Amino acid sequence: TLVARHQSELSPSRRRALQRVQAGALVASGRADEALRQYANLARAYPDDGDLREAYAQLLAARDDRPSLEAAQMEWREVERRSKPGGPRWFRAKYAVAELHLRLGRADQAERMVRLVALLHPELGGETMKHRFEQLLRRCEQP
Prior knowledge:
This protein is mainly alpha-helical. It has helices spanning 2-6, 12-28, 32-45, 50-61, 66-81, 88-103, 107-120, 127-141. Helix 6 runs antiparallel to helix 7. The chain starts with a helix and ends with a helix.
């Protein structure tokens, strides 16, 4: 395509932005498998891009198959590891990992994780995240 032929003329940051837009367009057009491949390549190329890694983890988590959910959990753990502890992205990652534990049938692990985060950070990242964590905890406690 015209865009692909001129990509080399872009600065690295503009090229990365264009690649992210292309991956998002694949998602929007229902081409999730292609989008996943593109996001995986981008995550390898730009491992410290938190926004990119979050988008990739969210796309994986949107699927229902166990391998995708496990991959999403691994990606969210990487997002957490590369985030400032106690920061907004870190809390989103902690929540996502716990929620994926629940979706993978490990409610006990999800509950332990939420309780530990709440013990160490009682504010749980602010009102919105606290509400989400509390809802997740209630889901964990359901039979």
